[in-house]
Amino acid sequence: MTRGYDDSFFRLGAIGAALYLGAQLFQAVAFWWLPVATAPGEAIALRQLPLDQIRNLVVLLGFVPLLVAYTAAALTGARRFTGSAILAITFTSLFVALEIGYRSIDLFGVSLQWASEYTASPDAAARAAVIDRIHHWEQIVVAWYFGLLLTHGAASICLAWVVRRSDAPATAVVSLLFALNALRILARMLEMHAGVHGLAPLNAVAYFPMVVVLYGTLTYWLLKQRGSADQAPVLPGTRPA
Predict the structure, then answer these.
(1) What's the rounded Cα separation, in Å, for the pair 137 and 114?
(2) What interhelical angle do 124-162 and 82-104 show, nearest 10?
(3) Residue ranges of the domains in the chain?
(4) Which of 25, 91, 152, 234 is buried most deeply by CB count within 10 Å?
(5) What is the reported pLDDT for 209?
(6) 3-class secondary structure for the chain?
(7) In a 3-state reduction of DSSP, which class is residue 81?
(8) Cα–Cα distance between 35 and 101 in angstroms, integer?
(9) pLDDT: is 108 or 234 the higher one?
(10) Is 237 left (phi over 0), alpha (psi -120 to 50) or beta?
(11) CA distance 71 to 55
(12) Could you give the count of Cα atoms lying within 13 Å of 233 in the half-sphere of its Cβ?
């Protein structure tokens, strides 16, 4: 693995973090423009709006560059913390797979098919059946989110450990942000799966600022890794150039 290859990959990781941040910013703007649904029928109508479908697709695709960004971050400490780097990449891959799987079903199955069935059906019973189907899907999503959040939290913990370097203040900031992200995810899990609903306001307020600070900082930090990061690959049996 040459230094030039590493430099290119870190730049690619920075681009990945920036693209993911851009997808999240687009979603925030879309949520600001989209109406708020207060009834099941309104929620289904909302799913059929082009802006909501584009939002869902943009966020779905945004998880692919996030995988690149997290992998690049893990590689910065691959030589010193090889096991943790491998775990970080593994947990990130599982998290991204769960996100893409859930969002693909939600967009292409629920929004594009079930919502269309609801609109096209003149029969009240058929419409009620679609509403019931979507309700069951949303319950499945809550359970799905347990594994999704667990893998993202585990990846964040591993990355907080992998990227730490006591002699680099900027790196210490990135490590701290990953640790804070893991705490934010834990709070979300307690709210969703342990019934600690008092955390809901805190989780709602903390999400977007955490996304902006973490991925904005990660973008800058990965750009600065050229020529200064671990040059050893994660794969056993290989050697840096």
Answers:
(1) 11
(2) 170
(3) 3-223
(4) 152
(5) 95
(6) CCHHHHHHHHHHHHHHHHHHHHHHHHHHHHHHHCCCCCCHHHHHHHHCCHHHHHHHHHHHHHHHHHHHHHHHHHHCCCCCCHHHHHHHHHHHHHHHHHHHHHHHHHHHHHHHHHHHHHHHCCCHHHHHHHHHHHHHHHHHHHHHHHHHHHHHHHHHHHHHHHCCCCCCHHHHHHHHHHHHHHHHHHHHHHHHHCCCHHHHHHHHHHHHHHHHHHHHHHHHHHHCCCCCCCCCCCCCCCCCC
(7) coil
(8) 26
(9) 108
(10) left
(11) 25
(12) 13
Could you tell me if 97 and 63 are in contact, meaning their C-beta atoms sit under 8 angstroms apart? no
Instruction: Give the single-character DSSP code of 197.
Output: G
DSSP at 239: -
Q: Which of 71, 115, 78 is nearest to 95 (CA)?
A: 71
Instruction: For 87-132, write each residue's pLDDT tens digit.
Output: 999 999 999 999 999 999 999 999 999 999 999 998 999 999 999 9
pLDDT at 1 exceeding the cut of 70: no
What pLDDT was estimated at residue 79?
A: 86
pLDDT of 24 above 50: yes
pTM of the model: 0.89
